[in-house]
């Protein structure tokens, strides 16, 4: 009996079939049951839907869906606005409301390349729709993901070069393997024996040439990236350096150290060790868990100076993109991305408003540059802020709230940063085009961005043309040559990164020949603008600043790929540009200067020597075995020469005999290096991509992207 009553209760609770549309039922209004109903027409809703009516036929798919979620997505896309009610309750189905039609997943493939010289690389190929021969390429190495704009993706242009050295790196008895092993142990020992700066010192002993360091910072870095108020920082810096009893806060001590570190990078490499100490001490002090007091403009200035110093002195420069993300969020938390929002005081003076605008302007610049360097998305867009550019005012004008901005043609201490701000939108679009996952990556979009960039660059060049002339008396305290050189470097790197993904197919397909011309011309201009300079500070930046060193590697790779393609093309008849050959020779000298300037990584110099020897051998028309022999001899000579520098450096540090330095370095590595290093043994035993001639010709290694067959034939014909 009780069971029958329970069944009757269930029957009484059963609802009638729904005859109203979903929207009218949710709004609890009368529905005329038409399709669409009158209520939905009045509300301009054309997707009126009924729950119990048969759904429209599903569209025919080219391929069957892989999961149930795919089917749900395709059916919910037609009724996203109204068909959000749950079957059992008149409530919104959040999952259904937010389900969107996912874009088609691009075809992906991951190739693994194991190199004895550098470790394991995973090359990610992602085909573009409608472009079978052009795809997005990114590389993961160790624990890092390098997007398309990262310089390491350029190695795809010269990957066949590594096949020359691989047999020697796999042979433990070869002279090249022994030299590389010694250089690795020496480099690790030099890094391990570097002085430690923990705990952080809160004192600062000014160097003897502190005046020159401050002047160098103001005339170069501060002229481009406005961070500080020059009159205030000059007054306080002089007081700190001249009066031992001068009372100052610790934050300014940190800023003084960073100013000297940046100034040293722009003037002299003799203070490299001191600059490293100043940067590390500042980094340790800024990492203190004092979060509340870090939300000040002075702390924000210190963080910006730290990032600029890291890039200049090459300390953790590959992690700047990560730190910039934190800097952007800290600035947004303080309201710098909103114009007119100045914390708790809406009626702030002109000084506060302009300093906030300057800092946000510099943060945007760091975000774009670090994104280009790291190959990561910029994590900020033009719709995320409404802060105006800084006003065209000198620092002295900020003392009065009634100061009016000067005309645009009048040069002030903020003019350069204002001019660079006008190029931010197109540069940001280029970085997003290269590194965003949603980017189409098509060639037509690249050409459109190229046109927009050239327009913005032309306007900037005309605007700064009077500034670049030394006869302009209104320009003071600015190193004109160094600043103009830096601007050209910053901007032309975007043009190089934009066209570089199309260089590989451009070497064999004429439809991409414009990109080949742009890339080669840009590399030539970058080298001639930056590296041959002397006496302007730029030549010293080359041996320290990370972006300059990355550019040098890209220039070597791009020009070598272009020259080797021309030498292999019978149309050119072995005739190549002599000015490009001179750059390869100069690259050997510049990479050698990096090692002499306390660099411990010898791979750049090794690769420069290898490339130059390969191109010279091809020009002489040598046979394939002789080409390989010439390259191996150049690599061995480079490694032995670099090893000698590292030995002398460690000898000076340990005050020991040269004959015992290498054994000391090997002992410092412990039993895990050499024979006991499993990773090193794996590198010698595994050879699946950059293999021998049979492996390449027989295609037993990893498959390449469509259209890369020419590259295999090109490499096999030359080297194997």
TrEMBL record:
SUPFAM superfamilies for the chain: Zn2/Cys6 DNA-binding domain (SSF57701)
Location of region: Disordered: 46-83
Stored InterPro entries: Fungal_TF_Env_Response, XnlR_reg_dom, Zn2-C6_fun-type_DNA-bd_sf, Zn2Cys6_DnaBD
Superkingdom as given in the UniProt entry: Eukaryota
Keywords: DNA-binding, Metal-binding, Nucleus, Transcription, Transcription regulation, Zinc
Cited Gene3D superfamilies: Zn(2)-C6 fungal-type DNA-binding domain
A GO MF term: DNA-binding transcription activator activity, RNA polymerase II-specific
Biological-process GO terms, alphabetical: DNA-templated transcription
GO cellular component: a single term: nucleus
Ranges for domain Zn(2)-C6 fungal-type: 20-50
Segments of skewed composition (Low complexity): 60-79
Family annotation (Pfam families): Fungal_trans (PF04082), Zn_clus (PF00172)
Record-linked PROSITE patterns: ZN2_CY6_FUNGAL_1, ZN2_CY6_FUNGAL_2
Matches recorded under PANTHER family: HEME-RESPONSIVE ZINC FINGER TRANSCRIPTION FACTOR HAP1
Protein's name according to its UniProt entry: Transcription factor
Naturally occurring in which organism (per UniProt): Triangularia verruculosa
